[in-house]
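Hello again,

I reread your note about wanting to compare the complex against the isolated chains. To keep things tidy I'm splitting this into two emails, and this first one only covers the full assembly. Below are the input lines as submitted, including protein chains and any nucleic acid or small-molecule components. They are followed by the predicted structure of everything together. The single-chain runs will come separately.
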Amino acid sequence: MKISLFVPCFVDAIFPDVGMAAAGVLERLGHTVDFPEKQTCCGQPPFNTGMWDPAREVARHQLRAFDGVETLVSLSGSCGAMIKVFYPQLFAGDRDEKSACDLASRTHEFSDFLVNILKVEDVGARFPGRATFHDGCHGLRELGLKTPPRKLLANVRGLELIEMKEAETCCGFGGMFSVKFPMISTAMGEVKCDSLIETGADFLVSNDSSCLMHIGGMLEKQGRPRKCYHLAEILAAT
Amino acid sequence: MSATASQGPPPSSAFRASARRFTRDLRHRGLIQKALSGYYTKRDENKSRFQSWQGARDLAAEIKFEAVNHLDRHLEEFASRIESRGAKVHWCPDAEAARSAILAIARENNVRSIIKSKSMTSEEIHLNDALESAGYGVFESDLGEYIVQLRHEAPYHLVFPAMHLTRGEISDLFQKELGSEPTDSPEELTMIARRVMRKKFCEADMGISGANFGVASTGMISITENEGNARLTTALPRIHVAIMGIEKIVPRMSDLALFLPMLATAGAGQALTCYNTLFAGPRQPGETDGPEQFHVILLDNRRTALLADPEQRDALHCIRCGACLNVCPIFKNVGGHSYGTTYQGPIGSVITPHLRGLQSWKHLSGASSLCGACTEACPVKIDLHHHLLQNRRNAAAQKPLWYERLAFAGFQFLMRNPALYALSLKLGRLGQIFHPLVNGSPLDPARAWTSSRSLPKLAPRSFREKWKARAK
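Full-complex prediction:
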């Protein structure tokens, strides 16, 4: 299958290895991967702020960047949900509504794509250690992806998954929310960090690097750092 | 009950200040977590008693859709049926009209003492303030409401008004206000309040209640409670006044077969509450008890404005169960009083801008990570977290902030120019070299982030650079 990668801007800038790992996993499974180079940001920051006009223009650029793409795989549940769930709303009644809906239907989050489209649950990965998994809320609730990442992790050799208390509770990142209401975001993060430490896991896995940036950054600041990995990085290891 | 918003700082500053205080208060955090952990267990236990909780939610949403989208018809049917049994229905467009109607009833009947059962709608119209300043004594008979009344506080949570207090604090309060002996036992605390209340019940000549549901087909009001105080409030005094928001209508009596267990489960983690009572009007000829007069206050107070908004109309499905508060990580950390308005939590953040003004209350819609736990918990399937997004959009469209407009114009320009975007990553890498000089200081431009989190570093080579290099 010909697969195009959607590497959200912050993954591009801060976590490039997540993109490389995802490409590696898909290629190992025998697929062709490309990266449409004109892509930048999905437009979620202005969208969530309520500034839908600039959000739409940024999103329109993505529609052009992904023009002609057969299958788009997103490396973030949140940015994936932006395209899959919110582009059709953002472009309702707009001249590009059809292409927005079309792109939405061809876009899949990474774990969803592996498990539900490629029907692969075992990618032949090996990553020894005790892990706990954090659900990014957009992946979990907008896209309904509770099980795919867990199915994939269950087949990783040497990896033991320990669920944390109230695993489905938000970590408090929330994009711009994290800096607009830092006191609330921080309190939510502290609750999450405590649940995570309580599991005794060696490292944290998520399918959203944005949550990891927040949780990992907080653990580091608290002086109890833990390794944080995107699911793709775990699956790429053999 | 304190006056809100009329004096003091603007609601958004008050919210921030209060949120700052409560989010740091680890004792408060622990208290609320502990109070809710018992609720989660019981809620899940009782959800599993439904053949299908999801199926029940679908059905409940359908029934409320029908009720709300034909509200005119259902309200008229409700009113004509309950009036045919001698009740008087007061159609009140706003809080002022509702307060005046209730004051007029009290005055015309030479009322001396008023007892109330739990009603968030009465909080919404600031009824106690109005009655007290007109010289009436008002006594809250719901234990939680009584406790917060003694503390001169607004309810902390729309279902659990005194959730933020420990037994010890309640005992201290009772010692101070009622002269009782200190005790740690919930039963004894209840008995202390009960002794005071019994006397008040016998004295009161007017009872004010809320209404959980108004049944259109039979013209009845349904009240759900656990303490039995609502029954006494409505049965002993010679006048019963029930306050009901117009959205509380359900079309048929049979709908209660779903809504009563659903409200109990979602709201309190119970299979059913201890008492569920239907009220059909005043004492009928030949009956030996019940009030001589029965008044229903039907309150609009901008609900029809929400009804006129097809996008967010489903917010009127709300049965005020509080399930969205109980799962909301924002609520759990900022606490109920930070909201500064009658309805707390996600539902409050959604409807308060509609009920009290978008620009003054938009900050509640902004203060959310949009995690969606509320929408998932809502038994009547209100699309809560998406309504927060819509409120943000409507607020920005109505009155854009100049700095956001400027920032996102720049953002738009950058993100539509991939070459410029790639360049900005390189410049960012240079810039971040200097960040340690200001890290955490007042000069740190990223201070809102770095005060509690270490700053993520831009990678030496971005993905697009690595990808290009690999292709060669």
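For quick reference: DSSP finds 13 helices and eight strands in chain A.

B.
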